[in-house]
Amino acid sequence: MNPNLASLHPYPFEKLAQLKQGITPPHDKAPIVLSIGEPSHPTPHFIQEALLAHSQGLGIYPTTKGIIELRLAIAEWLAQRYAIPVAALDPDSHVLPVSGTREALFSFAQCVVDASAAVKPVVVMPNPFYQIYEGAALLAGADTYFVNTTEATGYLPDFASVPDSVWQRCQLLYICSPGNPSGAVMSQQQQQTLLNLAEQHDFIIASDECYSELYDDEAQPPVGLLQTAYAMGNTAFKRCVVFHSLSKRSNAPGLRSGFVAGDADILRQYFQYRTYQGCAMPLPTQHASIKAWQDERHVIDNRRLYREKFTAFISILSEACPVNQPPASFYVWLKTPFSDTEFARQLFAHENLTVLPGSFLSREFNGINPGANHVRIALVAPLDACIKSAHRIKNFLNIL
Prior knowledge:
The protein has 400 residues and is α/β, with parallel strands linked by helices. Helices cover 40% and strands 14% of the residues. The chain folds into 2 domains: 3-42 and 298-399, Aspartate Aminotransferase, domain 1, CATH 3.90.1150; 59-295, Type I PLP-dependent aspartate aminotransferase-like (Major domain) (Aspartate Aminotransferase, domain 2, 3-Layer(aba) Sandwich). The chain has 14 helices and 12 strands.
């Protein structure tokens, strides 16, 4: 067996199941689960119809690179969304379809990390983080270095605290903007600083942008890494790879459809890796994805639904505790009055409401666990369930 398997941590939801073990919640309260970021808004009908209309494609082996129509649709969406000239994005060399960001974020590290380097490589990532980053780094044979995100830093990674000795060993940097779990958004200036560091120390930036289309202010969409690179004059997107998905944007997590885009030299080698990995996107999924990337109306409506839930949830809960709406994502990153694990356990026991302890999403680093005394609440349930959840948390806090 791969010896690095022994270094993997249990997944957050495995820990959550153990935390809830032995508790019988009240039977008079229907269960509400807000622990997992699984969108529950309906998948648009036109995506489902396109999937069915091309079902004959199930009889054909798909290619790893995907059909040109899909890559062209993605390139055009990127250009429109991030104010990049469409001519600067070659659908043949700058875009590669993937089966959702999860598998791509993991497999990318297996491709780009050189574990045979004279000095053991480091993969840098925010803390808290999407646990795929950590698992990908460990199984690629690298050390991990966590960059804490705290209230003092606006829940953004404190990259200024990373010593040069770490940057010198860094081969890959994961960033996530909008962030999971806080919804904090990196500025273009912050991304420029990272791109300069990548140039200086020769590492790759993998930008997880799967929450990029869930933002509060229609006039201020989150900036993307390719957008920042192009604005800096890095028109070839050197050392930049972005990861996008239809899961959150189009409420289609089961479609398993996304893409990576950026540095053509990196993607050429990642494409070669993927031809062996064997994860080509089925043709019906590709055709449904084309329709999804070409339509913005459903995405605008999706944001409206989340705004309604944030407004209602925060209006109720703010009567009992401080709570803020993030600039993006569908998460509330709530501070707890005592241990986050005990808060989540008691909330389930008293209110039959499941949230995720923040410490399950982070590691203790430099003397602190930045996820401690927080819980992540995913406002993915219908509006009425989110309203009920706010009342239940309010009642729970009032009892305390």
